Amino acid sequence: MLNRRLLRVIALAVATAVLSTGCMLSRAVDRAFLGLTVRRPSFDARKTTGIFLLPITFAIDVATFPIQALLVVILGDNFPFKDTEGINQMYALNQHPQLQKLSPERRAIAMKEFERLIGSGQLDRNTTLALTDEGEWVMVKVGDEARQQMLARAQAPEAVPEAVCER
Known about the structure:
Number of strands: 2
Largest sheet: 2 strands, antiparallel
Number of domains: 2
Order of helices and strands: HHHHHHHEEH
């Protein structure tokens, strides 16, 4: 009877902690170990550690809730995490064939330059970026129609080239 009750309390605490990933410490554990709200956690192979830490961080988050609420009002929703959409896209960019052609040093320089471009505010929805063979980014402004055509091409399934036999 006592074991069943204890198991219920533990299950309820873990479920509540997992669903409360909006608080600061719970978000930190989620980002580091679990990956519920981010694409890739920092320590992918340590999910068990994250599950054990969540109830502890949840208790601390509940105890410090008034302070956290005040910080959110003053500093914004993402405090202390400074996520931007562009930085999340950098991880997908690492797998791009054009970037893979570069040497590791050039790749690191290109990624830093990409991060600088994202943070500079020079890019808008009608800006395209191209990576040269030397690892330099080229910005090109396009109109709405050209942007729509590029999006349609990017979302279309790749066409299989027809086999042509010539003698």
